[in-house]
Amino acid sequence: MIYVISAIPALGSLVVINRIEPYVLGMPFVLFWAILWVCLTSVFLIIANKLDPATEEEED
Q1: Could you please report the per-residue DSSP string of 9-47?
Q2: Rounded to whole angstroms, how far apart are CA atoms 46 and 13?
């Protein structure tokens, strides 16, 4: 399941967003899509780090 979820940005870039218009925040849509996923990847990594029990600090 995790592999399917991770393929969503790639599939979307091939089929849905392979165009210049509409412009979002003054950027072509394909550039906006790439920047959006860079930011979302950082957010997802922070969440994964918080949820990972191996990164918990020991209390003593």
Answers
A1: HHHHHHHTS-SSPSEETTEEHHHHHHHHHHHHHHHHHHH
A2: 24
| The one-letter amino acid at 43 | V
Total-model pTM: 0.58
**Of 14, 16, 12, 18, whose CA–CA distance to 37 is shortest?**
12
d(CA 33, CA 2): 21
Tens of pLDDT, residue by residue, the chain (60 residues):
777 777 776 776 667 777 777 888 898 888 888 899 899 999 999 998 888 888 776 655
